[in-house]
């Protein structure tokens, strides 16, 4: 466990050093190896069926999910900036990958994955990792829940064994229409297999939470289906036998036409991969009390995507469920993630023929559980109740993701979240009139008025404050403006105060700033708020002296 002091030190530097090297420097002995091996085996048992299910749902063969988990998972842990991050194929990418395959083919997907790896590496080297993490929470919840709905909808066909007359549409509305039109082809055997898979997995999670529920659920239902000779589609009947070795590495085609077609998909993979991997690393930080290196994590994700593409895999990212499993299973260092990849490779070498018997309906049931868990129902309800602004951002992100596009949902949600934040900040900024300042016994004090400005004076609050300040400048009098409670002034806010000083000066009045913090005073002076248009004073008494005749 890392102390708070070391966390602070590491947070400030965020060096581009893989966490695996840091772990080795700290000392790595047999006890740590045993703990990492147990955790790695546990995660591999979870990753094995999940990787194949995600690959099939993404429109590629199950073997590509295994290649991604093996190569990508190993490289993420070897080069990553997190002690516990587990990389591999993720459910969040199903929709994007499927659409990419439909438009560019599998080779186009490999190229887009490779280009995305380059982009992620550049983002990390430019140290933009901490910037990407500034994602409003309602956007994250709406985005994740929207993906959950899309994944669940994509599994209905295999869950109930429908046979469509053509290709399954990608957008959700045409998809539902096509599924409804094919309702007469429903297979009772497929429905039974899917329900049995869900029932077994949930029962194990309920009564034996430490057991590998996903693998046991798939294994038991597959055995029962084979013994009963159920008429359901399997991995072997649809995709043929699984390979028992990794393919020879090769680069995707790099023609100008292919790169041009793959670039938009690569950009989408990069955006989603950066957000998903850093979110997963942050979840691991919260569970373990450690702190990841966001920039190194992006570099590792980039290397992993390039490596996966070369070996026939597709998009790699940090996976929250498998990362959380690693932490709960007692993993200590990135070695657990590397061992998880080697265990998946061993499973592929040994058990590849058996995987062909797995019914597609069973994998669809497994992904149905994953999708249901991704829909953050409690967070949805809480955010909707707490704030109208958060509810708006949440629902807009969710609906755009479900009915339009993942990237559009993120961008629109982020922009809307920024507007909500600006409005809230502007509402926290205000101006109130204070007690008049008495300069001496022979002088009327009515011509020297005091106003207290508080909050952030920036472009979002200028519209509200500008009208009030214009009224203040109407009469030729001295104005003492107390800015001791102003936390921030941008160029637009400073320009507004400059215009107040100029209007007062043109009418024979004057403006005195009281209590300006160094940063605020610097911002004001940068806009030309200097003598003779403006005077500064430490307090009201000093202001009275400045204005004394």
TrEMBL record:
Signal peptide range equals: none
Q: Is Transmembrane one of the keywords? A: yes
In terms of InterPro entries, this protein maps to: SLC26A/SulP_dom, SLC26A/SulP_fam, STAS_dom, STAS_dom_sf
Record's Gene Ontology CC terms?
Answer: membrane
Task: List where in the cell it is found.
Answer: Membrane
Q: Which residues form a coiled coil?
A: none
Any one Gene Ontology BP term? transmembrane transport
Question: Any transmembrane segments, and where?
Answer: 37-58, 65-86, 92-125, 137-156, 180-204, 211-232, 298-321, 342-372, 392-422
Q: Which CDD domains does this chain map to?
A: STAS_SulP_like_sulfate_transporter
Looking at the record, the residues that make up the STAS domain are: 447-549
Membrane topology value = Multi-pass membrane protein
Q: Could you identify this protein by its name?
A: SulP family inorganic anion transporter
